[in-house]
Amino acid sequence: MQRKIDREELEPLATGAWILGTGGGGSPYSSYLGIRKVYDEGGHVDLIDPQDLADDDLVAVVSTMGAPLVFQERMTDPDLAVKPVRMMEDYLGRKFRAVMAIEVGGSNAFQPLLVAAASGLPVVDADAMGRAFPEAQMTSFAIADLAMFPHALADVRDNEVMVARSATWNWMERIRRKVCMEFGSVSATCQAPRTGAEIKNHSIHHTTSRAIALGREVRRARAAHEDPVAATIQAADGQMLFRGKITDVQRRTTEGFLRGTAHLAGLDGDAGATFEVAFQNEYTVGWRDGAVAVTTPDLICLLDSVSGEAIGTESLRYGQRISIVALPSPDIHRTPKGLTHVGPRAFGYDVDYVSVFKGSRGEIRA
C-alpha cells in the first residue's frame, strides 16, 4: 500500500496539520513551500502504510524541535532535514527503509516529506503523537517504554550532535533541549530509530492521511462559503468551547520553548464570559470564567473564526476573533500511564485531566 502523495494534497495537509498542531509544531507554511518546490521541479514523495513495513525494517523518526517563534526565522529545507538522518545511518552502519514524523502537528508533518525528497525514502503514514507535543517523553514510544537513544541533532551551520545514551526519556529531553538552545532554539533531529514491528505496535497510524482529510474538508467548506470551524468540528468529532476575541497575550521564549497565556473576551453566545488558555509551544489548559474547562491531552485548537485556519501560539495577536475547539486525543494518551506523560501535571499544572468528551475518541472522516 505505497502510493504517491499528490501535489493537490499538500495544501490540505498543511491546513489539517496546523489544526492538529494545537498551536505548536511550527507553522507549516515554509515547509509546505519547500516540498511544493520539489513537486514543481518534477519530484514527488511516496506514502506507505505502516502495516506494510517488515518487522525488521528500520524507520527514521524525524522532527524540527525548538521554539515555534524561531521556526518563522529559520526555515527548514530538505538538505537540513536529512542531515541528522545521514548522521544516524553513519552511526548505526545501516540504511533506513522509510521515514516518519514524530508528530503530525504543524511543520513537523512536512519534515519526513522533506527528508523523503532528499533521500528517496517513502514516508510512513503514522506518527508518535497524533497531534503535537513539545517534549521527547510525550510520545507513544515513551509511553510504551521503548528505547530513547541514540538521538541525532543538526543545525543550519555545521554543528552535529549525537546523544549516544541517556538514563531516561526525561534525561534525553533535558540533554537535547540544551543542545537545541545552543543551536539557537531550533534543530533538525533524527530520534531513536524504530523497527517496523515497533511502528506497527506502538505508533499512531494513518495520521498523515487524517490530516489531509481534515484539511480537505476545511478547504471544501471555505470554497462553498460554509463555516470552516463547523467543518472541523464535524470532520474530527470535535466540540466548540468558546467564541471570542483576544484581549491580552503574554508570551516568552525560554529554555527552547514558547510559553505564555492568552486571554479572550466572549462574543456572540459567549458574550460576558472570559476564557484563558495557557501554552508551552502547544495549548495545554483552558479556563472558562476561572474554572478549568479543558486540558491536555484533548487537542485544544484556536481557529480563526472566519477562515477556520489554525492560529499558532507564536501568531496570537490582540483583537483576533477566535473559535476555541476541542478535538479528542488518541486513546493511548487517556490511559493512566499516558496521562503521566501528557496530562496537565506533566506540564506543571496541579489539576486533574478534564475532558469535554465522553466515551470513545472520534476519527476524522475522509
Account of the protein in words:
With 366 residues, this protein is of the alpha+beta class. It folds into two domains: 2-207, CV3147-like fold, CATH 3.40.1610.10; 226-347, no CATH class. It has eleven helices and 18 strands. The strands form four sheets. It has a seven-stranded antiparallel beta sheet. Strands 3, 4, 7, 8, 9 and 10 form a six-stranded mixed beta sheet that branches. Strands 1-2-5 form a three-stranded mixed beta sheet. The longest helix is centred in the middle third of the chain and has 17 residues, at 207-223. Residues 360-366 have low confidence and may be disordered.
H/E topology pattern: EHHEEHHEHEEHEEHEEHEHHEEEEEEEH
Q: Estimate percent helicity.
A: 25-40%
Order of strands across the widest beta sheet?
16-15-14-13-12-18-17
What is the count of structural domains? 2
CATH domain topology of the largest domain: CV3147-like fold
Largest sheet: 7 strands, antiparallel
CATH architecture descriptor name of the largest domain: 3-Layer(aba) Sandwich
Strand content: 25-35%
Spans of at least 5 consecutive residues whose pLDDT stays below 50 are: 360-366
Number of strands: 18
What is the highest CATH level, the class of the largest domain?
Alpha Beta
What is the subunit arrangement here?
single chain
Helix and strand content put the structural class at alpha+beta
Under CATH, the homologous superfamily of the largest domain reads CV3147-like domain
Q: If you average the pLDDT, what whole number results? A: 94
Distance between the termini: 17 Å
Count of DSSP helices? 11
Shape: globular
Radius of gyration: 19 Å
